[in-house]
Amino acid sequence: MSRILAASSAAVLLLPALASGHDFWGEPAGGALLFRYGHRGGEALPLDAAKVERIRCARAGEPAIDLRPRATATDREVRLESRCAAVSAFLHAGFYSLTPDGEVNRPRDEVKDAVRSWESRQFAKWIDPAAPGSTGPLGDELEIVPVTDLRAARAGDKATFRVLLDGEPFAGATVAVGHRALGETDGKGEVRIRIRTPDVESVSASVRRPLRSPKADALVLEASLTFPVAR
After folding, report:
1. Are 214 and 13 spatial neighbours (Cβ–Cβ below 8 Å)?
2. Parallel, antiparallel, or unpaired for β 190-194 and 86-99?
3. Ramachandran region of residue 142, left (φ > 0), alpha (ψ -120 to 50) or beta?
4. Would residue 19 count as lying in a domain?
5. pLDDT value, residue 102
6. How many domains does one find in the chain?
């Protein structure tokens, strides 16, 4: 079988969906990098920093290293005072169950009358396209990497992105900007979309896989890629 994972040939990789309706993203602030949760452009929601398990930092000519022990946190963000060409964070949001009374952040085996349940893993990556070594993969379970050279990409231009699942191009991932689904990745794991914002853009991808577990019916993976837009 081809190393390119095709949705049409693997039913377990169908039906991408958002786990919680909230984004996890990274963005620069002065000389620091901030990771936040909620809706980018709006008010950040509370973030349990203990669930941010890893922060990988990549610099030119060096392997990515985990700088999570150096990060500091408030109740709404995790802050890394370090300069990186690319940096990604992993938020293990845990298990969610949908009940007739609404959604709860608990596994199926702890909830009565659960309609469906899922485990949520979210990956947030920020890159500086002008920095050497910024555009390659960092090794996240689900990851977005640019195919287009983003150094000259401006608002209104189209750019191509590739979605990797376990390091392999993934066909059938849902790709969105601002919670608006814009398409699915093709057989090469790629999608071409228009850059919409003039300062900083954030692209997200989601994949849903079934689980055979008393805790959840599915594993939902989400990834975001945030980058400055050329002017």
Report:
1. no
2. unpaired
3. beta
4. yes
5. 93
6. 1
pLDDT value at position 21? 67
Residue 177: inside a domain, yes or no? yes
CA distance between the termini of the chain: 43
**Smallest Cα–Cα separation from 79: which of 124, 126, 36?**
36
Q: Which is nearest to 103 in space by CA: 92, 118, 123?
A: 118
**Does residue 1 fall inside a structural domain?**
no
Q: Is the dihedral of CA 220, 225, 226, 230 positive or negative?
A: negative
Instruction: Output the CA torsion 81→154→38→46 (10° steps).
Output: 20
CA 172 to chain CA centroid, nearest Å: 16
What CA–CA distance (Å, rounded) separates 78 from 122?
Answer: 14
Domain membership flag for residue 66: yes
Instruction: Please give the residue range of the domain that contains residue 82.
Output: 7-228
- CA–CA gap between residue 142 and residue 139 (Å, rounded): 8
Who's near 149: CB < 8 A, 6+ residues apart? 129
92-118: buried (b, 16+ CB within 10 Å) or exposed (e) per residue?
A: ebbbbbbbeeeeeebbbeebeebeebb
Asked if 84 and 59 count as a contact pair (C-beta separation under 8 A), the reply is: yes
> What is d(CA 5, CA 137) in angstroms, rounded to the nearest whole number?
17
Residue with tokens 């620091």: 32
pLDDT averages per 10-residue partition of the chain, 231 residues: 39 39 87 91 90 95 92 96 94 95 95 94 96 93 97 96 98 92 96 94 96 95 96 87
